[in-house]
Specification:
By secondary structure, this protein is an alpha/beta fold. The two termini are 43 Å apart.
């Protein structure tokens, strides 16, 4: 099947041909006709499956047939969780729409707001935005939604994970009730489905891969190693295997900075990308990595989705993520669009719990490879795919104010309850960070 099968206009087909794509991917084959029919959609697709074109192409087709956006108005709104993903989606919109007379723009935080306000004065047929900056612009009357026809939530599960649910609900309250709604997500949790009920109208649900399964063409293995030896092991792997482009994930921002300094000290070109970096620094780091002047990009999970790097051969988990689903998103940066790649995890003994959770999620025990001179003193326990054991619930204690509870307390102590004994002073219990 070719893209012409969908009835897309010549300017869009010409742009597709210029990108070198000849056949639609499975998610595009399923999504494009439904979006063209103006149906609401819930699409589950892994990263690297071509989902961005799956909604970008039909949106461009639909908008090219209508009235262009007026001043400060938006006709199609695409919400993304991160600045990097917003930039990538905006680039796709510009690429596929370059032979059309439509206007598109992108807005996100971390940069000055005034230039974005100026761009929106002429209106945007397609606006790609992160939730926080969009609300800032709306509150400054820089963006309006009377002309809005289509809303897209890209990486909806990630937006919920990052705490954008309240911003999303607020944005939705400002939009016209009559609109097309498209939700794209790697997985559809109960929270996502709950949001979808308030957002979509009789949506068609499509999926192109089994739930929570990693891509088949990714070679995955782990190297057990003591925590203190991880930086040296990573350096040796890079040098011995002549890795010229590797994306490394750490759990924290400080860890990313510390590892970057270590690699640079040992003669390896590296850069860090995380939430504490300015947008200009993040953009430069990604650009240098893509063109090859930087060989190692060290990132926190803010970059786990939205980084679109052609033919990325290696992903390394320097630290295992606390959330097992993040492992799938991290390694999904490699082996995109049918290419092959490998994902290596450096695992210390204290990360056994995270390792077992990941293996249960992907339903496979990861191959272990010991590297000479880096055999761990503290070995990683053997894996198994048995479900995690849950502790039986303890019987509930009687409430403090309950008579029976008070009597039993008095009988046990042989005195009055603490609340009535002046000699006993109650002490408050004290209870107990994001990359």
């Amino acid at each position: 099947m070719s893209f012409s099968h969908f009835g897309l206009s010549d300017p869009i087909l010409k742009a597709i041909t210029e990108t070198g794509y000849k056949e639609p991917s499975p998610i595009q084959t399923k999504a494009i006709p439904l979006v063209l029919e103006a149906k609401d959609l819930m699409a589950a697709a892994q990263t690297g499956t071509g989902k961005t074109a799956g909604f970008t192409l039909p949106i461009l087709e639909r908008l090219s047939q209508g009235e262009q956006a007026r001043a400060n108005q938006v006709r199609a709104l695409i919400l993304t969780p991160t600045r990097e993903l917003a930039a990538q989606v905006a680039e796709s919109v510009a690429t596929y729409g370059k032979h059309l007379s439509l206007h598109s723009t992108v807005v996100f935080g971390g940069v000055k707001i005034n230039p974005q306000m100026m761009k929106l004065r002429r209106g945007a047929d397609i606006l790609v935005a992160t939730p926080g900056r969009l609300l800032d612009l709306f509150n400054n009357n820089a963006v309006k939604f009377k002309q809005l026809e289509i809303l897209v939530l890209d990486e909806a599960d990630r937006m919920l994970d990052m705490g954008f649910i309240h911003d999303i609900r607020k944005i939705i309250s400002y939009l016209p009730a009559k609109r097309q709604n498209l939700m794209f997500s790697a997985t559809f949790s109960d929270e996502i489905r709950k949001l979808a009920k308030t957002l979509t109208h009789n949506p068609v649900e499509i999926s192109v891969s089994p739930k929570k399964v990693t891509a088949q063409n990714i070679t995955q293995w782990i190297s057990p190693v003591d925590k203190k030896q991880k930086p040296a092991l990573l350096r040796q792997l890079i040098v011995d295997n002549n890795w010229w482009q590797v994306l490394v994930f750490t759990r924290t921002k400080h860890g990313a900075n510390r590892l970057t300094r270590y690699l640079e000290t040992h003669g390896i070109d590296a850069a860090a990308i995380h939430g504490n970096k300015s947008q200009a620094a993040r953009t430069k780091a990604l650009t240098d990595f893509k063109k090859g002047s930087t060989h190692v990009l060290v990132a926190t999970d803010i970059a786990a989705r939205g980084l679109d790097i052609d033919q990325l051969p290696q992903v390394v988990n320097f630290d295992l993520p606390n959330v097992p689903e993040d492992y799938v998103h991290r390694i999904g940066r490699t082996a995109r669009a049918g290419a092959s790649g490998q994902a290596i995890s450096l695992v210390s003994a204290d990360e056994a719990k995270q390792l077992f959770a990941i293996e249960r999620l992907i339903k496979q025990v990861l191959t272990r490879k010991l590297i000479d001179d880096f055999e761990p003193v503290h070995d990683v326990p053997a894996s198994n795919l048995a479900p995690a054991k849950t502790k039986p619930k303890k019987p509930k204690k009687a409430k403090a104010g309950h008579k029976d509870g008070q009597r039993s307390a008095q009988n046990a102590r042989g005195n009055k309850p603490f609340g009535k004994n002046k000699k006993h002073k109650g002490k408050k219990l004290r209870s107990g960070s994001h990359a």
